[in-house]
Each structure stands twice: as C-alpha cells, then as structure tokens.
C-alpha cells in the first residue's frame, strides 16, 4: 500500500497527529498519536520531543524500506570501490612519475614530446 493511501484511509487518519508522512532513521513513517499506538501496526522509529506523537513505519512498508536500505548500501559500497581504485591508480601513476627522478621528457625525431605516461 502506498503511503498516500494511508493518509486517506479513515481508519488510519483517526490515529494520526497530522496528515503527512516523513522520514525517521531513513524510513518512511507516519506521525501517530501516542494514545493511538495500538491502532496502527508497525515499528516505532522515533517519538516527538513532547512524546505525544510516535513516528511509525507500517508493517506493509518494512520490506520496501529494507530493500531501499539495501540498495543504498550497495551504492555506498560501489562508490567506495571506485574511490579506492582511483586512489590506487593515482598512487601507481605517482610512483611511475617519481621513478624518473625529474628526468626531462624525451623528444621524438620530429620534435614532438613523447609522453612517459601514455
């Protein structure tokens, strides 16, 4: 069930402190009146400062939220992998350049510079 349907469902809206959904702990949640906690099945992810509102992730959304979190973790791992590869490549290139100890680039027969990094 989509979140906006929960916001229109009379059985749900009677338990809400407001008609919106938000994120808590990177999870889609509904603001539920603390006194109505038993009316909405789900996982409590946070509470308001006053304690009158609980931010609850509906049971039906738990698996969807879990898949979203797994996708985010895969993206993070891929970004780290690419960064590590780029750093290793940069270090290897730096070592290669340093191995020439400041030697000037060689000149080709036609006067063009021969790149040592090509």
Structure, explained:
This protein has about 120 residues and is of the alpha+beta class. The protein has helices spanning about 5-10, 10-15, 60-100, and strands at about 20-25, 25-35, 40-45, 55-60, 105, 115. It has a domain at about 5-60. It contains 3 helices and 6 strands. The strands form 2 sheets. It has a 4-stranded antiparallel beta sheet with strand order 1-2-4-3. Strands 5-6 form a two-stranded antiparallel ribbon. It is rod-shaped, with a radius of gyration of 28 Å.
Structural class: alpha+beta
Fraction in helix: 40-55%
The SSE string, one letter per element, is: HHEEEEHEE
Overall strand count: 6
CA(first)-CA(last) distance: 56 Å
**Order of adjacent strands in the largest pleated sheet:** 1-2-4-3
Number of helices: 3
How would a textbook summarize the main sheet?
4 strands, antiparallel
Q: Notable features of this structure?
A:
4-stranded antiparallel sheet, 3 helices
SSE layout and pairings?
Layout: H1 3-8, H2 10-13, E1 22-24, E2 27-33, E3 42-47, E4 53-58, H3 59-98, E5 106-107, E6 113-114
Provide a compact summary of the structure:
With 118 residues, this protein is an alpha+beta fold.
């Amino acid at each position: 069930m989509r979140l906006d349907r929960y916001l229109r469902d009379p059985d749900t809206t009677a338990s809400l402190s407001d008609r919106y959904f938000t994120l808590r702990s990177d999870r889609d949640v509904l603001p539920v009146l603390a006194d109505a906690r038993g009316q909405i099945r789900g996982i409590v992810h946070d509470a308001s400062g006053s304690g009158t509102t609980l931010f609850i992730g509906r049971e039906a959304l738990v698996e969807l939220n879990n898949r979203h979190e797994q996708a985010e973790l895969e993206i993070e791992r891929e970004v780290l992998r690419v960064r590590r590869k780029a750093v290793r490549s940069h270090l290897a290139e730096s070592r290669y350049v340093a191995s020439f100890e400041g030697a000037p680039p060689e000149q080709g027969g036609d006067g063009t510079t021969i790149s040592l990094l090509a």
